[in-house]
């Protein structure tokens, strides 16, 4: 039994009991600030009126050296507090109990998030403890406008979920929508925010994530400052952010920490490699099957030479190797770190090299597969990258049947699907479609901070100014600005 | 209203751009060159006049019946029976016109790239992809156009820039050797394409910034005019006097692109990206047809009839011509008159009747009052 019932007498007279769960409550604190002061009640002063019961307020005000005390009236509330780790103090003849804020359970310390590492930027990540996570947010946003709304989800797990937003920036309708979608969830329990994600997303049948998940507090804070809403859950380091567009899923927090020119180039690199990760194997199949004339002659000869011994058509060859690559990636991911290295050696050296020598695949294809793999890892969000990686397979099939036309039709299908998607009312392809020229500063390029004067337009249209304009650094600042001439005059 | 989505006037303008250019750059340059010779670059300017007129008519009708599409206000203007009849003419025309577009697309792809693939597969796959966009409504087609059109424009400009080394400016001279007539003759065929701007009559009710509808319609006509003229110039500079002998001069010109012995034979990529433009074109026609049919039949939703009409479109694409030669003959001879009379003639008559009825109604009102 992990629930501890500790009966004792306050001052040797009044009967009382302390109930807590072993391992969730801080036992040293209970001894020091509850049991010792209460049981040693019978000092000289108190002996005068020995028959009287000790008034509750007296205990509260003078004896309980605990900062967080909450009165509980019902048994359900008692159970809730006990399972949260807060010991409950019950006193004879009293209709109220006291829940003491002395919970203390084992938790992981704040570490660098392994899934989203950065070269420059804060290195702290969320942990499994909701309290710690909220404190991380509070430390970054000191304004009282940062609001946290708490609710419980899960019939049995009673997991605490917090909706966080900044009042004044966020659209109130969005908050209501998030709340109503969360309130609709009726399940036994939630273990990870992905449960919530599946219940609240707009199109459950889409391969694309319509919610951003992150374990980085700085990403959450940046999103809150843009007027988005964060959903945090106890027991997982992953917070959800809504609404998002496709472009925000292609961004890394480091885009904003690097110099803006570098970030712009990196963003474009990412867009190009996004297309490569989706299209390269299918382009290989289409060109080799239908459009050989596009390849320069010398390259064509060398490809043909290396494919001479291959018994399969390009389509089968590409599908085979892509599946092997996906299996290798999955195996490397799930295995312990030491074995993971072995898998990558087996994959890279043995399969790649041996497949070519055994005449199962041509070396250009191995290169295509490897390049596609690298390309898919340039996408900073795992969920986005995996969606594109899986869409690669139907694209290869289309390329094998209709060539470049098939690829185009497949792309048009994907585009049509993306154009229909919405994330909490925000079109998925915005700001590209519907086009908002002003928003392009954070999509086509990463404009310098002194140019990012407006917030992204999500659902609301007012209060879009985020900072003062005209903050471009200039050596002339501090001097008389108005006398600054144009064009060297 | 059947359609709940809203588009912006700019989206409408962007949607109309590939709706005209996508097929106008296929067969039209050759037909234009046959009449206009070295003045073929002038023809789009004359042809665009009817485009401006059509946009004007559509916008005027829209002002008289702001919430309604062409099919709905034909009934208001002409009465129930005649209105339904005119609506049927429009719908049948769009069915036929879209069938021809799909056939042009199919013939082009099969003739140049996928010679062993059955025509029906090429056309059917496209109709299927379009039907998903049409089912999703006008908003989605608008967004798709916004993504696709910049790519198409960049593609056209990039190709023209890559062709600069092969261009001979002398091909242009002598300008207007035989006066203005050849270029006017050359403008007759492209006119048929410019009348397709009537499609904005199906989109205008769903434009949220209504007063900008006319502006963006006109911008779109201008953009199409400039694009077609630019393509005609590029084709003329590259191919010269033999332009009219090619089936698809613009794509034949692309074959000349050869940079550093590496960037050559890019016509398959050009085709693939052009397919995206055709996709928007077919989707817009298809959407107008589906929406119009639903309104003509007083349905409460247009989605259920998308796939049946898609199937009908495939049949019309097959039926529209026995072969490519017949198709070119039709497009180069009677089609402009057919298109102009239905897409500009009938709406013009509708506009006159509507204005006249308004006037007589007002007179009646003033007489009574």
UniProtKB/TrEMBL annotation, chain A:
<dbReference type="Pfam" id="PF03323">
    <property type="entry name" value="GerA"/>
</dbReference>
<dbReference type="InterPro" id="IPR004995">
    <property type="entry name" value="Spore_Ger"/>
</dbReference>
<keyword id="KW-0472">Membrane</keyword>
<keyword id="KW-1133">Transmembrane helix</keyword>
<protein>
    <submittedName>
        <fullName>Spore germination protein KA</fullName>
    </submittedName>
</protein>
<feature type="compositionally biased region" description="Basic and acidic residues">
    <location>
        <begin position="469"/>
        <end position="483"/>
    </location>
</feature>
<dbReference type="GO" id="GO:0016020">
    <property type="term" value="C:membrane"/>
</dbReference>
<feature type="region of interest" description="Disordered">
    <location>
        <begin position="460"/>
        <end position="489"/>
    </location>
</feature>
<feature type="transmembrane region" description="Helical">
    <location>
        <begin position="365"/>
        <end position="383"/>
    </location>
</feature>
<keyword id="KW-0812">Transmembrane</keyword>
<feature type="transmembrane region" description="Helical">
    <location>
        <begin position="395"/>
        <end position="415"/>
    </location>
</feature>
<dbReference type="InterPro" id="IPR050768">
    <property type="entry name" value="UPF0353/GerABKA_families"/>
</dbReference>
<dbReference type="GO" id="GO:0009847">
    <property type="term" value="P:spore germination"/>
</dbReference>
<feature type="transmembrane region" description="Helical">
    <location>
        <begin position="268"/>
        <end position="290"/>
    </location>
</feature>
<comment type="similarity">
    <text>Belongs to the GerABKA family.</text>
</comment>
<feature type="transmembrane region" description="Helical">
    <location>
        <begin position="340"/>
        <end position="359"/>
    </location>
</feature>
């Amino acid at each position: 039994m992990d629930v501890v019932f500790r009966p004792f007498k306050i001052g040797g007279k009044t009967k009382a009991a302390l109930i807590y769960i072993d391992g969730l409550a801080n036992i040293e604190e209970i001894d020091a600030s509850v049991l010792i002061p209460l049981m040693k009640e019978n000092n000289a002063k108190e002996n005068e009126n020995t028959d009287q019961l000790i008034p509750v307020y007296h205990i509260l005000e003078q004896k309980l050296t605990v900062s967080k005390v909450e009165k509980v009236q019902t048994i359900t509330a008692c159970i809730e507090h006990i399972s949260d780790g807060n010991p409950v103090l019950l006193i004879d003849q009293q209709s109220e109990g006291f829940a003491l804020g002395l919970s203390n359970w084992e938790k992981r310390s704040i570490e660098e998030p392994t899934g989203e590492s950065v070269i420059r930027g804060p290195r702290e990540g969320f942990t499994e403890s909701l309290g710690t996570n909220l404190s991380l947010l509070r430390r970054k946003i000191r304004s009282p406008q940062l609001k946290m709304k708490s609710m419980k989800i899960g019939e049995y797990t009673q997991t605490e979920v917090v909706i966080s937003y900044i009042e004044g920036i966020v659209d109130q309708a969005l908050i209501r929508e998030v709340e109503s979608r969360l309130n609709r969830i009726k399940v036994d329990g939630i273990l990870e925010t992905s449960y919530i994600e599946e219940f609240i997303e707009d199109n459950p049948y889409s391969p694309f994530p319509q919610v951003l998940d992150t374990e980085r507090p700085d990403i959450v804070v940046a999103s809150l400052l843009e007027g988005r809403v964060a959903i945090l859950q106890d027991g997982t380091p992953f917070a959800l952010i809504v609404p998002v567009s496709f472009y925000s899923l292609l961004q890394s927090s480091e885009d904003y920490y690097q110099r803006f020119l570098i970030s712009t180039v990196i963003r474009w690199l990412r867009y190009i490699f996004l297309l490569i990760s989706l299209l390269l194997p299918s382009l290989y199949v289409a060109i080799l099957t239908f459009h050989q004339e596009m390849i320069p002659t010398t390259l064509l000869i060398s490809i043909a030479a290396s494919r001479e011994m291959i018994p399969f058509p390009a389509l089968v060859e590409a599908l085979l190797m892509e599946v092997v690559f996906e299996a290798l990636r999955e195996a490397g991911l799930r295995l312990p770190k030491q074995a993971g290295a072995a898998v990558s050696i087996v994959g890279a050296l043995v399969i790649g090299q041996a497949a070519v020598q055994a005449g199962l695949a041509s070396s250009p294809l191995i290169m295509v597969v490897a390049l596609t793999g690298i390309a898919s890892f340039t996408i900073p969000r795992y969920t986005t990258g995996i969606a594109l990686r899986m869409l690669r397979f139907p694209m290869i099939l289309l390329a094998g049947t209709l060539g470049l036309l098939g690829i185009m039709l497949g792309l048009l299908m994907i585009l049509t699907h993306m154009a229909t998607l919405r994330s909490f009312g925000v079109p998925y392809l915005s700001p590209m479609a519907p086009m908002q020229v002003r928003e392009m500063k954070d999509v086509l390029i990463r404009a310098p901070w002194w140019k990012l004067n407006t917030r992204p337009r999500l659902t609301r249209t007012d209060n879009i100014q985020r900072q003062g304009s005209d903050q471009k650094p200039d050596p002339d600042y501090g001097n008389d600005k108005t006398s600054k001439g144009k064009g060297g005059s | 209203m059947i359609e709940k989505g809203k588009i912006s006037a700019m989206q409408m303008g962007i949607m109309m751009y590939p709706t005209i250019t996508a097929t106008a750059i296929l067969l039209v340059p050759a037909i234009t060159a046959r009449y206009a010779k070295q003045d073929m670059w002038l023809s789009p300017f004359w042809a665009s006049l009817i485009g401006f007129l059509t946009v004007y008519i559509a916008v005027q009708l829209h002002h008289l019946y702001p919430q309604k599409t062409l099919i709905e206000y034909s009934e208001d203007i002409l009465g129930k029976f005649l209105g339904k009849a005119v609506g049927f003419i429009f719908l049948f025309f769009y069915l036929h016109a879209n069938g021809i577009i799909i056939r042009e697309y199919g013939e082009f792809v099969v003739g140049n790239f996928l010679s062993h693939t059955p025509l029906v597969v090429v056309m059917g796959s496209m109709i299927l992809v379009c039907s998903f966009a049409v089912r999703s409504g006008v908003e989605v087609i608008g967004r798709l156009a916004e993504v696709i059109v910049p790519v198409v424009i960049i593609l056209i400009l990039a190709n023209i820039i890559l062709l600069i080394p092969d261009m001979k400016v002398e091909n242009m001279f002598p300008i207007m050797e035989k006066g203005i007539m050849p270029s006017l003759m050359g403008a007759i065929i492209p006119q048929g394409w410019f009348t397709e701007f009537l499609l904005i009559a199906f989109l205008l009710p769903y434009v949220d910034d209504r007063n900008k509808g006319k502006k963006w319609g006109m911008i779109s006509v201008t953009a199409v005019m400039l694009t077609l003229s630019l393509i005609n110039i590029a084709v003329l500079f590259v191919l010269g006097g033999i332009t009219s002998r090619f089936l698809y001069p613009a794509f034949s010109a692309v074959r000349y692109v050869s940079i550093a012995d590496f960037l050559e034979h890019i016509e398959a990529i050009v085709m693939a990206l052009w397919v995206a433009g055709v996709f928007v074109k077919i989707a817009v026609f298809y959407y107008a047809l589906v929406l119009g049919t639903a309104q003509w039949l007083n349905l409460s939703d247009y989605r259920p009839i998308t796939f049946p009409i898609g199937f009908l479109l495939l049949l019309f694409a097959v039926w529209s011509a026995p072969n490519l030669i017949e198709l070119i003959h039709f497009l180069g001879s009677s089609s402009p008159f057919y298109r102009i009379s239905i897409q500009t003639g009938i709406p013009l008559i509708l506009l006159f009747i509507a204005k006249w009825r308004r006037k007589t109604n007002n007179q009646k009102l003033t007489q009574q009052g």
